[in-house]
Amino acid sequence: MIKSYTDHAANERTFLAWLRTGVAVIAFGFLIDRFDLFVITMSNALSVQPDHRAELESMSSKLGHGTGLWFILVEIILIVAATVRFVRTRALILDQEIHTAGFMMEFVLAVVLAALIVVASIPLLVSAL
What is the 3-state secondary structure (H, E, C) of the chain? Predict the structure, then answer.
């Protein structure tokens, strides 16, 4: 029997949740990055007027390329940080001393994702005005 098995299992489940969230955010970044292809396809299918089509293409390219890339890069960094957190927590579980729990990683993730959402919303707000 593995000593502190439940703690190790909880640590692994938490790590896998971080990875799952990271992969989902990276996929969302790819979706944002390739949103312009969707807009162009829809404008071709609906026979949109040329001046409106140019406006749609301009808006979608502004939104997609930079924001999608930021989502992907930031989440790769957070996956690396989650891996470091997993290894550190494993070492702390194996250690016999009592340690205090930290919440800094979760706080940083919340702030970064909120900032990314705000940055992704700026082009939409500007184009709506």
Answer: CCCCHHHHHHHHHHHHHHHHHHHHHHHHHHHHHCHHHHHHHHHHHCCCCHHHHHHHHHHHHHHHHHHHHHHHHHHHHHHHHHHHHHHHHHHHHHCCCCCCCCCHHHHHHHHHHHHHHHHHHHHHHHHHC
- Domain boundaries defined on the chain: 5-128
Averaged pLDDT in 10-residue chunks for the chain of 129 residues: 85 94 90 75 72 68 72 88 91 82 78 82 72
pTM for the model stands at: 0.68
Cα 57 to chain centroid, rounded = 24
